[in-house]
Amino acid sequence: MxxxxxxxxxxxxxxxxxxVELVSLLHNHPHFSLEYAFSSSxxxxxxxxxxxxxxxxGQLDVxxxxxxxxxxxxxxxxxxxxxxxxxxxxxxxxxxxxxxxGLVVFDLSGAFxxxxxxxxxxxxxxxxxxDLPTEIPYGLAEWTTLIGTxxxxxxxxxxxTVSSLALKPVMSLIDGVPMVNAVSGVSGAGRxxxxxxxxCEVSLAAYGVATHRHQxxxxxxxxxxxxxxxxxxxxxxxxxxxxxxxxxxxxxQATVDKAYQQAYAAEPLVRLxxxxxxxxxxxxxxxxxxxxxxxxxxxxxxxxxxxLLKGAAAQAVQLANQYFxxxxxxxxxxxxxxx
Length: 339
Ligand SMILES: NC(=O)C1=CN([C@@H]2O[C@H](COP(=O)(O)OP(=O)(O)OC[C@H]3O[C@@H](n4cnc5c(N)ncnc54)[C@H](OP(=O)(O)O)[C@@H]3O)[C@@H](O)[C@H]2O)C=CC1
Ligand SMILES: CC(=O)N[C@@H](CCC(=O)OP(=O)(O)O)C(=O)O
Known about the structure:
Belongs to the NAGSA dehydrogenase family. Type 1 subfamily. Its main location: cytoplasm. It is a single chain. Helices cover 26% and strands 21% of the residues. The chain contains 9 helices and 14 strands. It has helices at residues 17-27, 72-78, 88-100, 117-124, 158-167, 214-222, 253-264, 279-282, 309-323, and strands at residues 7-12, 32-39, 47-48, 63-66, 81-84, 104-107, 152-154, 179-184, 205-206, 227-232, 239-246, 270-272, 288-295, 298-305. Strands 3-4-2-1-5-6-7 form a 7-stranded mixed β-sheet, with helices on both faces. Strands 9-10-8-11-14-13-12 form a 7-stranded mixed β-sheet. Helix 5 packs parallel to helix 6 (214-222). The relative contact order is 0.16. Bound molecules: NADPH dihydro-nicotinamide-adenine-dinucleotide phosphate and ligand 2.
């Protein structure tokens, strides 16, 4: 255990939705101190974060500063850890320099998640940089062990987090290909304006059918092929995944319950529920709620998370807690949420 009161850190993409959640969590964390909150260089001036998020006025006295690469040496002298909440290509471009400067990088984008380079290229349309650490842990927090020497940690995507947490405990009981139907709130698409995510355009519908980049990520995480259909709903935040999986012959409810208990009884941020979970119960929290029922030799699993917290910022902080040997839920137990 590192006996440090305050580990200095920085957030890139702090003006965005998952970035501002990171800023809020780190600002209130007992063992991390937020030294820098960067926006993109497209913004000309530094400004209080409350000028973008007025709900933070009087609560979060943080200055957003445009990132420029000439700040790198100053950053490397003053902080130990950086959290990247950037578009995938921006993360891929900046991470190698940060690592070479000796910083520990928790990356929330998809730039470093897929191990197979052709699957990565197909999903993201650019090649991963090759000057990277050979081992980049995929940080599904409840299923990852960080020892505190890693240089770069890939934080899972929002849909893969909820889908993999729901499926991994029972994969040895499943015979065939699970099917994941998941509905996300609009904050999943980020803060940047786009026609198809504007309020009057969004109406519950599937998208990315058979093409979404999270399909290979979920398959990698569960070690099995998967069918994945994301949907966009007209609400702000949260993801509800409904999953159908054919069971091996004779698998009982008791066996399923035992598998979930074994996986999660000691995990503070996964709740095994007696009822199907609702998004309202997880929004603003770092929890993943899971409910599973055996029906006609299939398993029906319902699972919910807050996409910006357990699906992004809170999972990154949970991993940083693990990295520095703090309790996994440290700083994550208050209900919150900025956006
Ligand atoms: N939203 C979600 O639910 C989830 C998002 N993620 C991932 O997290 C990352 C951020 O997503 P999200 O918060 O939604 O995105 P937003 O669009 O809300 O924010 C993007 C942020 O990145 C900054 N930025 C953009 N381009 C650059 C650049 N070239 N250099 C430096 N900064 C840049 C923006 O700054 P500026 O404001 O100045 O443009 C902004 O702060 C993405 O990779 C996303 O896939 C992961 C899980 C869930
Ligand atoms: C509703 C919506 O648009 N969601 C995003 C996924 C969320 C996200 O930002 O992707 P990562 O988790 O891979 O970082 C999408 O489908 O592209």
